[in-house]
Amino acid sequence: MPLIKTSLTDDIGTIGFDREAKRNALSAGLIAETIAALDDLEARKARAVILRSVVAGKVWSAGHDVEELPRANVDPLPYSDPLEQLLRAVKAFPAPVIAMVHGTVWGGACDLVMACDLVYGDETCAFAITPAKLGLPYNVAGFLNFMSRLPLNVVKEMFFAAEPVPAERAERVGIVNRIVPAADLEQTVYDMARTFTTRSAAAIAAAKESIRVLSESAPINPATFEYLHGLRRDVYFGPDYHEGTAAFLEKREPKF
Ligand code: YXS
Question: What are the structural domains, with CATH classification, of the chain?
Answer without folding.
Answer: 4-180 (3.90.226.10)
